[in-house]
Amino acid sequence: MTQGMLVFAASVPYGPAIGLLAGLGVLFGVALYIGSRKFAVKVDPRVDEIVEALPNANCGGCGFGGCRAYAEAVVLKGVATNLCAPGGPAASAAVARIMGVADVGAEMRVAVVHCQGAPARSRSRGEYSGLRDCRAAVVPGAGGGAKSCAYGCLGYGTCVEACPFGAMVMGPDGLPQVIERLCTACGRCVEACPRSLISLHSKKQAVFVLCRSHNKAKVVREVCDVGCIACRRCEKACKHDAIHVKDNVAVIDDAKCTQCAECVKVCPRGVIWDLSAARAAYSGTRAPAEATAQVGG
Amino acid sequence: MPNLLRFHGGVHPHDDEKPRTRGLPIETAAAPATAVLPLLQHIGAPSKPVVKKGDQVLRGQAVAEAGGFVSVPVHSPVSGKVADVGKCLHPLGMSVDAVVIENDGRDASVPGFGEPVDASSLDAKAIRDRIRDAGICGMGGAGFPTHVKLSPPADKPVDTLVVNGAECEPALSADHRLMLEHAEGVASGVRLLQRALARDGRLPKTFLAVEENKPDAAAAMRSACSKLSVDCEVVELPVRYPQGAEKQLIYALTGRKVPPQSERGLPMDVSVVVQNVGTAFAVHEALERGKPLVERVLTVAGDAVGRAANVRARIGTPIAELLAARDVSPGPTRLVLGGPMMGLAQFTDELPVMKTTSGVLVERREEEEPDRFGPCIRCARCVEACPMQLVPTRLSVLAEAGLFDAMAEWGVVDCIECGCCAYVCPARRPIVHQVKLGKWMLGQAQKKAAAAAAAKGGAS
Amino acid sequence: MRVVRVSPHRSEGESIPLIMWTVVLALLPAFAVGLYVFGWRAAYVTVLSAASCVGWEALIQKLRGVRVTVADGSAVVSGVLLAFVLPASVSWYVPVVGAFVAMGIAKQAFGGLGANFFNPALVARVFLQFAFPSQVNMPEWPIVAPQVTGLARLAKSVAPGSPDAVTSATPLAVLKANPGAAWEAIPGSQPFGPPLAWLLPAGAAWAVFALLVAFAAAGIYLEATRGKRLAAVAGVGALLLFGVVPTGDISFGLVPGCIGETSAWALLLGGLALVYYRCINWRLPLAYIVTVAVLASVLPTRAGDGSLVVGFSFERTLVHVFGGGLFLGAFFMITDMVTSPLTSKGQVAFGVIAGVMAALIRLYAGYPEGVCYSILLANATRPLVDRLTMPTVFGSRRRAAPARPAG
Q1: Which residues have a Cβ under 8 Å from the Cβ of B361 and sit 6 or more positions away?
Q2: What is the mean pLDDT of chain B?
Q3: CB contact under 8 A, C18 and B426
Q4: What is the pLDDT of residue B351?
Q5: Where in chain A is the domain with CATH 1.10.15.40?
Q6: Is A142 within 8 Å of C7 when comparing Cβ atoms?
Q7: Helix, strand or coil for residue C295?
Q8: Total Cβ atoms within 10 A of residue A96
């Protein structure tokens, strides 16, 4: 039979060549199949399942080097299942299900920029000429930025650049704005801000003190129209012991805050904001400027 | 005459100001109405105040004591009442603690202030202690406490003293005038420094370096050293910036190469100590005239300054007051503390003169201060110009890309921030700024890693 | 209002446009010769090429969505250089297509100015050689007929079929076809004479030459001790231009060839200007030219009849050095800042590498001219050369670059 096959192959044009290549193909196919079974690496299939369940943005918000790294950490090292911020509660539930554990739930969080001192509402002490980067502006020797307030937002957009989800934009007033719908609370903007003005808050929290200046009232009045002067009216108005003035600035304890917004009403300078109305009003796919101006500052 | 060596790189910044200022004799500026004394004018631990609000102080009295070994006291330049122990702005942009004194105008001084003192019998340790007690730190701009520099550890013996009168920054001529007008004071200070470094009774080999554009100062110093029998060789070096930079200066005079910053290299690693001529003069004034460090000579210049001058100003004089009598033209300007190549630009003139302020420049702004810079075209002028033999173009491109970790591998820590690279760059890239940013980001990452390690260590 | 920026607060005043326009200025002598030798078409092709480069770059940058940067002059330089490596007889679409390849493929696709790996003009030239071989790679090249003299030559056209043009092979082509060819058979070899200084009567010639040597030595001394660049460049330049480069059609450029490559004398003049303005490092062109000269002189080659041609021949060396595009490549192409190494040491190595390639291609490979390819091949080795020639940090044993290639 082989003899017949060889004779047949020899008679077809290019027969030997086709036969040789086909034979090689079959040989390699078989070899690869054997190899893939014999040398297969044992991988826990749950790793791949988890990777499927994650958003795969590789933002690093969980603290690991990418979604696959987090999946491996969950499966191999027993890391918590609810660390994926962009994935939110959906991812947390899926990962918990894959691992066969109870879902501890992930809180929906967003970033909030704690400064309202736009150039139009604050003073500047000169002109800064140099790298358009907030960190570069405060590096020793660079002058500390043109804003008179030593604690305020410099407005050069380093946080905007740092956001991998496009959830930070520079507003028309020179302050960064958080598009809450897109924000996954990965924390990149928090790291990027050299003045530590950005924090992650639960989405349930709607009342925020949008100032972090430790300047005394006299200085604050000189440098900013919307800065906290530590007058303590908010502290007195709060019935839930949730807001206190520490080191010349009011600070809200999210755990105690009930969103009653009494402090918002009494603040003489409009430093405290209640974003619930703005959040309710804002809907749709494109963020209107006014809505984003009020959502997250 | 040593065999002078040429360091790699360097530039010749154009300098219209120095010819104007070097002929101006030292004027004594008026004492300030309020003296603002930062408690961190030096490298090291901040000084700790020893007075409180309301205290009366005399001129020359210590208002703050050293905050550690690497620290110096701070003395009041005026007599008056302590108005506040609060904060003031530092040229680097941050806020530092300060003692504010209201001048009562009487200039009542501590006993012995300005009186001649015989220091010939002091031994090395006594000299160092008195230098520390006088609050002296490096006056060339770095501000390293002088007594610490003069106390090298036992395993790093020093055999050479270099007195730095190069003043390579354009526009500045304070050191030049100091050497010209107070040559004997400087020479006497040099001798005290030599004695502070003496080992087994042997004084170190001493050079006093000036650039070739100061032949009159060199001559004055030679004759003063000879008159006072100070064994010091006055050497004239080619004019090239940064000839006065420590590492490059030591190399030019001795051929020794100080290891770079990433290897924690210091001049004492090659058995050398470098001191500025202003520091030498301050040592003389402190040990032989009973005057702790309360004043210094600096150059006020710039094309917006109508009456440039070399002034002897009291430490703590607000820059605004210093400039008030200088006919500064109004309009948009740039205020720089220090020289044009490494000086710090300031938003406000409400800062005080510090021990390390060598110059105050006010210049008219250029028509446009471009924020945009060009792409790197790899012309390699920066590589040619870098005195530390780094590759500035690479550092700049890495910083632009945000790759700060890679900058460490390319030697960013070794950069002395002299500005030669940015000076020559045709694309006007802000290389020094990018280097500063890179260093800062690396420092932040290190702090974060250290905190994480500490937390881990603490938690486990 | 005070403005604050980080030090230094002084700048030398150099800028990218300044550098680019200096290069264009340095190309003017060669352009003048090109006009003289090839007539008005030299200007036509050059202007068309430069304009196309500017146009294509602007269009591509707009499409890319980045800032249009044609004002920095780099597109103009590429355009002029592209024209200089094309014959003056090309049709209009040749430089236009070439400009697209240069700006779009060789430059913008890599990221724009500063990011390209290969010399854009040369990449375009290679492309055109394959795309339009009959126009760019002819056996016979035109020049305006030698009988026409003076400014009248500018009115003549060398378009294909023009009655004002005469065609012949280039000097290198003749030499390639017949390595043992007699000197007189090489185009441009007649008339030929000694360098300019030596045209004077014997005594005066020696005196002038001695003076030139003295000026060159004095200039070098002044530069080394007091940094007086102009003295060194002027001194050495005068010595080379008047005392070393021979007179003759082959070195002044009245030979067939590409628009800007024929006149070694004019290109040397431009090259000296570039050295003076610190646009190029003199070591690189020197290394390149010397390597080609030495290798082309000592390496054996085969004559048309199969016999081996060995041994040094002064005439062959002259043709290799002054005929062909060596000087254009050495001063204007290989020295392109973006595609050449950062350090002096690296540039010398770079010049030698390219020189070896050029000599090998000229002697043994299929083309009579190897400069274009040798430079592109060397461009490919540039990252490796850079990595091996990084400086050592002052005071340390460490190189200023990481040991691993990454970063």
Answers
A1: B17, B171, B300, B301, B302, B305, B334, B335, B336, B337, B338, B339, B340, B343, C9
A2: 93
A3: yes
A4: 92
A5: 45-99
A6: no
A7: helix
A8: 19
Interchain proximity C2–B333, CB inside 8 Å: yes
DSSP tag of A105 = -
Give the integer Cα–Cα distance in Å for B433 and B440: 10
**Nearest-Cα residue of chain A relative to residue C2:** A126
Q: Shortest CA distance to C261 belongs to which of C87, C384, C135, C117?
A: C87
C-chain CB neighbours of A139 within 8 Å are: 6
Look up the pTM and report it.
0.90
Instruction: Give residue-wise pLDDT tens across range C151-204.
Output: 888 888 888 888 888 888 888 888 888 887 888 888 888 788 888 888 888 888
Q: Is the dihedral of CA C214, C220, C226, C229 positive or negative?
A: positive
SS3 for C195? strand
The answer to whether B314 touches B29, Cβ cutoff 8 Å, is yes
**Both tokens of residue B107?**
């200039």
Strands B26-28 and B309-314: parallel
| Nearest CB to B369 within list C5, C390, C400 | C5
**Cβ neighbours of C12 in B, within 8 Å:** 11, 13-14, 423-424
> Is residue A97 less than 8 Å (CB to CB) from chain B?
no
**Chain segment B408-449, per-residue pLDDT in tens:** 999 999 999 999 999 999 999 999 999 999 999 999 999 988
What CA–CA distance (Å, rounded) separates C56 from C71?
Answer: 13
Class for the domain spanning A45-99: mainly alpha
Within an 8 Å CB–CB cutoff, is residue A140 touching chain B?
yes
How far is C-alpha B98 from the chain's CA centre? Answer: 20
- Among the listed residues B105, B85, B108, the one whose alpha carbon sits nearest the alpha carbon of residue B38: B85
Beta bridge partners of B359: B299
In what helix (H) or strand (E) does residue A291 lie, and over which residues does it extend? helix A289-294
Q: Going by C-beta distance under 8 Å and a sequence separation of 6 or more, which residues neighbour residue B97?
A: B38, B39, B40, B46, B49, B85, B86, B87, B88
Residue of B nearest to C404 (CA): B409
A109-280: CATH number: 3.30.70.20
Query: Amino acid letter at B187?
Result: A
CATH 3.30.70.20 domain extents, chain A: 109-280
Chain B touched by C402 (CB under 8 Å): yes
Which ipTM was obtained for this model? 0.91
In angstroms, the CA B240 to CA B351 distance is: 31
Nearest CA among A87, A91, A115, A92 for reference residue A102? A92
CA distances from B217 to A109, B177, B183, B186, B405 (A): 68, 8, 8, 11, 46
- pLDDT attached to residue C190: 79
Q: What tens digit of pLDDT does each residue of B151-176 get?
A: 999 899 999 999 999 999 999 999 99
Picking from A123, A129, A154 by the largest number of C CB atoms within 10 A of its own CB, the best residue to mutate is: A129
How many pairs of residues across A and C have Cβ atoms under 8 Å apart? 28
Q: Chain B within 8 Å of C392 (Cβ-Cβ)?
A: yes
